[in-house]
Amino acid sequence: MTQPLTPQSDSSKCIRVCQNRACRKQGAAKVLAAFEARLIPGVTVSGCGCLGQCGNGPIVLVLPERIWYRGVRPHEVPLLVEQHQHSLKE
Ligand code: FES
Questions:
Q1: Ligand 1: which atom is nearest the Cα of residue 21?
Q2: Which residues contact 44 (CB under 8 A, 6 or more apart)?
Q3: Following DSSP, what letter does each residue of 6-73 receive, concatenated?
Q4: Which pLDDT band, with edges at 50, 70 and 90, does 22 fall under?
Q5: H or E segment to which residue 85 belongs
Q6: pLDDT tens per residue across span 28-49
Q7: Is 59's C-beta closer than 6 angstroms to any atom of ligand 1?
Q8: Which atom of ligand 1 is nearest to the CA of 50?
Q9: Mind listing the pLDDT tens digit for each residue in 59-90?
Q10: Which atom of ligand 1 is nearest to 23's Cα?
């Protein structure tokens, strides 16, 4: 897992996992399934279309912080959720 690309602001609480072609080729479906298996109350987890970071996937966008992760692997999802759990529950 790589470090976030750019933090910004947003109002909704959700985790988006790109499910477009390039990210799916790199295992995005398994990453999405890993997030869905670790549901956080009040937080939406969803697949989404291309996030414009093709080739660095699977791409994950955490809102409201708008923090981007690239090259996420399914086994890294628990750590990612743990890192964001506090802010996502607020
Ligand atoms: S295909 Fe995932 S960011 Fe473009």
A1: 1
A2: 12, 13, 14, 15
A3: -----S--EEEEE-SHHHHHTTHHHHHHHHHTT--TT-EEEEES--S-TTS-S-EEEETTTEEE-S--
A4: very high
A5: helix 77-89
A6: 999 999 999 987 888 899 999 9
A7: yes
A8: 4
A9: 999 988 899 999 999 999 999 988 877 665 55
A10: 2
Rounded distance from Cα 60 to ligand 1 centre (Å): 10
5 φψ region: left (φ > 0), alpha (ψ -120 to 50), beta (else) = alpha
Distance 65 CA to ligand 1 centre (A): 19
Q: What are phi and psi of 5, to 5 degrees?
A: -85, -55
Its pTM surpasses 0.85: no
Distance between CA atoms of residues 55 and 12, nearest Å:
26
Q: Cβ(50) to ligand 1 under 6 A?
A: yes
